[in-house]
Amino acid sequence: xxxxxxxxxxxxxxxxxxxxxxxxxxxxxxxxxxxxxxxxxxxxxxxxxxxxxxxxxxxxxxxxxxxxxxxxxxxxxxxxxxxxxxxxxxxxxxxxxxxxxxx
Length: 103
Hints:
Layout: H1 3-27, H2 31-37, E1 39-41, E2 49-57, E3 60-68, E4 71-78, E5 91-94, E6 98-101
Parallel strand pairs: 1-5
Antiparallel strand pairs: 2-3, 3-4, 4-6, 5-6
């Protein structure tokens, strides 16, 4: 096998994974995709804005509204931390167990 054939073989084997990874990561930056899948936020710093403190839960402030990737979420309820693996569409889970909803 000459070097050109070896290069083509590597390209044929690697390029599908490269394009698949690019497609997957592009979806993670699409707010419409995130709205359909739900979002889990572990660090409050990634939120774009927070408005109106309405209480506290386990040492964290509960905000009336938060903004993430241009989408506004309003506070809905407090849940157990294990709920983060069950987050539904239009939901944003913020540690330690705050659930927000978007339209």
